[in-house]
Amino acid sequence: MAMIGTMVEFSGNGKPYSGYLAPSVSGAGPGVIVIQEWWGLVGHIKDVVDRFAQAGFTALAPDFYHGATTTEPDVAGSLMMALDIANAAKVIHGAVDALLSSPATEGDKIGVVGFCMGGQLSMYAACIDDRIGACVNFYGIHPNVKPDFTRLMAPMLGFFAESDDYASAEVVSGLDQELSRHGKPHEFMTFPGTSHAFFNSDRPAVFDADASEHCWQKMTSFFRGSLAESG
Q1: Which of the 8 DSSP states describes residue 83?
Q2: Going by DSSP bridges, is the β-strand pair 58-62/29-35 parallel, antiparallel, or unpaired?
Q3: Which of 13, 26, 79, 136 is surrounded by the most beta carbons within 10 Å?
Q4: Pairing between strand 15-22 and 58-62?
Q5: How far is CA 112 from the centre of its chain?
Q6: How far apart are CA 155 and CA 222, in angstroms?
Q7: Which residues contact 224 (CB under 8 A, 6 or more apart)?
Q8: pLDDT digits over 50-96, tens only?
Q9: Structural domain boundaries of the chain?
Q10: What span, in angstroms and rounded, lies between the C-alpha atoms of 137 and 178?
Q11: Is 225 helix (H, G, I), strand (E, B) or coil?
């Protein structure tokens, strides 16, 4: 499939950043920020952005590593742990600005979805920018990213794997209880027989096509409903 999107430049708090942007193939649609795994802004994430565009959304994947990518888990772990959280916040705000100012984006609120490291960042994003009207977390993990859920104003959808050393059943249960304690609307789903990163079609060892398709349908419906209500 030919790539729909292109690399673009945007600014956050006066600093230049880049990302992969794909406008809705229908001309305009709800905006969605797609946040990378610990590998960086790799082909799989761009594919997800393109897929959103084909589904009628305008999607942007900011580059949180500023050009760095890897296929080596040790390097990915180092890049993830070296992430400057204050800088990541600027990237998030800038990406929201860029999406909302695009003529291809409809509504005054956008959605955010992230995977692994990005899943944790998606929750963080929804707690620091009230222009985010819907949040999806795929098996999020980052020990240094601690969302302040008292500030969460968007409903959350969470997708998790049955076998996951990172986002374990205990971690998911704790997150569920914390959100409930703060009265935040959320729905979590754990998929039997799956492992961490089951949505990543570029990783055949863990990819689960059936679970991924279920998540995709659930997520796009969630975004359409939540962003239509808020837009």
Answers
A1: -
A2: parallel
A3: 136
A4: antiparallel
A5: 5
A6: 9
A7: 30
A8: 999 999 999 999 999 999 999 999 999 999 999 999 999 999 999 99
A9: 6-230
A10: 15
A11: helix
Let me know how long the chain is.
231
Q: How many Cβ atoms sit within 10 Å of the Cβ of residue 170?
A: 8
Q: Which token pair is 227?
A: 């962003």
Q: What is the DSSP letter of 66?
A: T
Q: Give the three-state DSSP class for 195.
A: strand
Dist CA 51 CA 25 (whole Å): 10
What are phi and psi for residue 181, nearest 5 degrees?
-60, -35
Q: How confident is the model at residue 231 (pLDDT cuts 50, 70, 90)?
A: very low
- Total Cβ atoms within 10 A of residue 29: 23
In single-letter form, the type of residue at position 143 comes to P
Mean pLDDT of 21-28: 96
Take residue 142 and report the two structure tokens written for it: 């980052």
Of the candidates 164, 153, 112, 158, which has an alpha carbon nearest to the alpha carbon of residue 130? 153
AA identity, residue 209: A
CATH 3.40.50.1820 fits 6-230, yes or no: yes
Mean pLDDT over 10-27 rounds to 94
